[in-house]
C-alpha cells in the first residue's frame, strides 16, 4: 500500500519561539486523536511528532532560523477530505498566531510514495519530475538493464532504462535533432546506428531511401518491448531484423566497431544513440568517460573521410560536463568542426544541447560532429 505525504512550509521574517506557536496548534492535533511526542533537538528549535490510531503521522518543526514546517504522512486509502481539513485548519491557525511575520506559505502537491506505478523520475541535472503516468505497459530485466515502458497521458508511452527516461512517443524533436534536423540527405548513403533500440532513428532514416542502415543494439528485450508499445516511434521497422535498406544486429557494438576498423569498412554517417555525456566531471577516473572516448575513437576510424558523426549530449545545465566533452573532441586523432544548438525534448522537461557543423562550412576531409 502506498503512502501519501503532505507538506506545509511557513517562512518567517524573524524567528519565533515555539511557545508562541505550538500551544495554539495542540487543540487541532488532539481533535484528530493524534498523540504528541516531543524530541530533543539540542537547541535547534522545536520538534514534535503526532501519531494517530489510523496510521497518520505528523511532524511539526519550529526551526530556529525562521521556518515552520509540517509533514503529514498517511496511508493511500485514508480520508483525503479529513486530511485537507486538518492542513487547512493548521494553516489558518498559523496565520493568526504568526500574523505579520509570515513572508511565504507553501503547500506542495501531495507526494505518493511506494505506489505500484512510479510517477517520479529525475531530470539529468537532478530535479524531480512528477509525470502523469497511469500504467506500466512493459517491464523486463535483461542481462544488461531494467526496461520499463510507461504510459503517460501527455507524452504517450515512455521508454525508461535503469531509471533514466530515454524517449517518449512525443519526442520526435530528439530523433530529428540527432539526425540533423532535416539538413542531411541520407539517400543512397551508408549509415551506422549505435544503440537506438527504440527504433525512432531507424524509422526516420528508412524514409529517405538510404543505401543501407546498420543498427547495432545489444539488448533484444528493448526491441521486443518497443516494437509492441512504441509503435508511434518505430512504426514497423522493428518487426523484422532486416529490410530492403536496413539490418538490425543484436550484439555489442564495441567488438563490431573493432572488426569494421580491421576490415577497413567505412560509413557516411555514424549516429551514436548509446548513452548521454556522463554527469561526472572527472573524465580520467570515470568508466563512462572511458567508454565514451572509446566509442568516439572507433567511430572516427569507421567514418568515410567526409563522413559525419551525431550523438546526444546531456542537460544544458550540466555546463562543466559538456565543456569536458568538447575537450575530448579536441583530442581525437583528426580535427573536427562543430557548432552548438539546443533542442527541447518534450518528455525530458529540459533543454538538450546540439552540436552541428558551421552553416557555411562545406564538406572536407575532417569529421563533422552533430551532437544532440
From TrEMBL:
Keywords: Acetylation, Phosphoprotein, Polyamine biosynthesis, Transferase
Pfam families: Spermine_synt_N, Spermine_synth, SpmSyn_N
One annotated GO molecular function: spermine synthase activity
Signal sequence bounds: none
Source organism superkingdom: Eukaryota
Enzyme class label: transferase
Pathway noted in the entry: Amine and polyamine biosynthesis; spermine biosynthesis; spermine from spermidine: step 1/1
EC identifiers of the protein: 2.5.1.22
Reaction catalysed by this enzyme: S-adenosyl 3-(methylsulfanyl)propylamine + spermidine = spermine + S-methyl-5'-thioadenosine + H(+)
GO biological process, any: spermine biosynthetic process
Matching Gene3D superfamilies: Siroheme synthase, domain 2 (3.30.160.110), Spermidine synthase, tetramerisation domain (2.30.140.10), Vaccinia Virus protein VP39 (3.40.50.150)
Chain ranges of the PABS domain: 119-360
Catalytic residues in the record: 273 (proton acceptor)
PROSITE patterns: PABS_1, PABS_2
Description of how the protein assembles with itself and partners: Homodimer. Dimerization is mediated through the N-terminal domain and seems to be required for activity as deletion of the N-terminal domain causes complete loss of activity.
Similarity annotation: Belongs to the spermidine/spermine synthase family.
Descriptive protein name: Spermine synthase
Species this chain originates from: Xiphophorus maculatus (Southern platyfish)
Amino acid at each position: 500500500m502506498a503512502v501519501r505525504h503532505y507538506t506545509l512550509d511557513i517562512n518567517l521574517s524573524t524567528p519565533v519561539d515555539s511557545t508562541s506557536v505550538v500551544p495554539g496548534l495542540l487543540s487541532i492535533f488532539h481533535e484528530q486523536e493524534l498523540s504528541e511526542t516531543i524530541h530533543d533537538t539540542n537547541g535547534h528549535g522545536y520538534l514534535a511528532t503526532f501519531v494517530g490510531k489510523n496510521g497518520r503521522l505528523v511532524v511539526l518543526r519550529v526551526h530556529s532560523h525562521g521556518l515552520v514546517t509540517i509533514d503529514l504522512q498517511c496511508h493511500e486509502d485514508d480520508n483525503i477530505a479529513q486530511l485537507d481539513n486538518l492542513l487547512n485548519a493548521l494553516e489558518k491557525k498559523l496565520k493568526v498566531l504568526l500574523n505579520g511575520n509570515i513572508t511565504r506559505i507553501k503547500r506542495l502537491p501531495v507526494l505518493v510514495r511506494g505506489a505500484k506505478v512510479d510517477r517520479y523520475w529525475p531530470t539529468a541535472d537532478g530535479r524531480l519530475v512528477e509525470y502523469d503516468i497511469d500504467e506500466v505497459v512493459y517491464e523486463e530485466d535483461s542481462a544488461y538493464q531494467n526496461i520499463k515502458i510507461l504510459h503517460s497521458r501527455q507524452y504517450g508511452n515512455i521508454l525508461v532504462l535503469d531509471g533514466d527516461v530515454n524517449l517518449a512517443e512525443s519526442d520526435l524533436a530528439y530523433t530529428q535533432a540527432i539526425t540533423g534536423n532535416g539538413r542531411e540527405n541520407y539517400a543512397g548513403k551508408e549509415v551506422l546506428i549505435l544503440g537506438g533500440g527504440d527504433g525512432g532513428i531507424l524509422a526516420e532514416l528508412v524514409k529517405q531511401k538510404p543505401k543501407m542502415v546498420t543498427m547495432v543494439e545489444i539488448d533484444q528485450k528493448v526491441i521486443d518491448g518497443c516494437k509492441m508499445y512504441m509503435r508511434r516511434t518505430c512504426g514497423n521497422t522493428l518487426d523484422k531484423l532486416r529490410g530492403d535498406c536496413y539490418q538490425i544486429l543484436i550484439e555489442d557494438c564495441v567488438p563490431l566497431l573493432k572488426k569494421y576498423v580491421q576490415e577497413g569498412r567505412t560509413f557516411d554517417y555514424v549516429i551514436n544513440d548509446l548513452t548521454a555525456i556522463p554527469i561526472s566531471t572527472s573524465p580520467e577516473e570515470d568508466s563512462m568517460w572511458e567508454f565514451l572516448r572509446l566509442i568516439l575513437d572507433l567511430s572516427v576510424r569507421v567514418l568515410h573521410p567526409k563522413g559525419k558523426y551525431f550523438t546526444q549530449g546531456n542537460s544544458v545545465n550540466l555546463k562543466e560536463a559538456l565543456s569536458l566533452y568538447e575537450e575530448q573532441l579536441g583530442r581525437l586523432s583528426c580535427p573536427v568542426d562543430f557548432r552548438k544548438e539546443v533542442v527541447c525534448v518534450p518528455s525530458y522537461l529540459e533543454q538538450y544541447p546540439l552540436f552541428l557543423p558551421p552553416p557555411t562550412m562545406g564538406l572536407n576531409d575532417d569529421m563533422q560532429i552533430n551532437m544532440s
